[in-house]
Amino acid sequence: MRTERAVSGVGTSRVSRDFVKQLEGYGLTTAHILYRMPDHPSLLQTYLWQHYDLCPAFPELNRFLAFWRRELEGPLHSVTVAHSRLVKPAELRAVDGVFLLN
Predict the structure, then answer these.
(1) Following CA atoms 20, 25, 26, 30 in sequence, which dihedral angle do they give, to the nearest 10 degrees?
(2) In a domain, 56, yes or no
(3) 27-38 mean pLDDT
(4) Of 94, 90, 89, whose CA–CA distance to 24 is shortest?
(5) Has residue 7 been placed in a domain?
(6) The model scores a pTM over 0.70
């Protein structure tokens, strides 16, 4: 499946991948990650991660956290997740006509 599609009636314009993901049910997910400093385990550092993801499984976030555990030295302390679907089906409706104002 192509993630970019031509907008009908608008020559070379393209719909953004993020907008297409929103139409497919993805929502903006923010994860506030606290992790321990490798050299100073008693100190916590913060990291903010934001990406479009599917609730409630969060496959993108889980992929990122698996990468973190596998590749990075700072052990995770906690992850707080917030999720919002920015485009909801009820917010999209067909346009019946175009009105031009001079």
Answers:
(1) 140
(2) yes
(3) 94
(4) 89
(5) no
(6) no
With bands split at pLDDT 50, 70 and 90, how would you rate the model's confidence at 33?
very high
- 93 part of a folded domain: no
Cross-strand pairs, 36: 44
Q: What's the CA angle centered on 44, arms 59 and 83, to 5 degrees?
A: 30
Q: Enumerate residues 6+ apart whose C-beta is below 8 A from 49.
A: 30, 31, 33, 61, 64
**CA–CA distance, 96 with 63 (Å, rounded to integer):** 42
Q: Do 53 and 83 form a contact (C-beta atoms < 8 A)?
A: yes
Q: Mapping DSSP to helix (H, G, I), strand (E, B) and coil, where does residue 71 land?
A: helix
Instruction: Tell me the residue range of the domain where 72 lies.
Output: 17-87
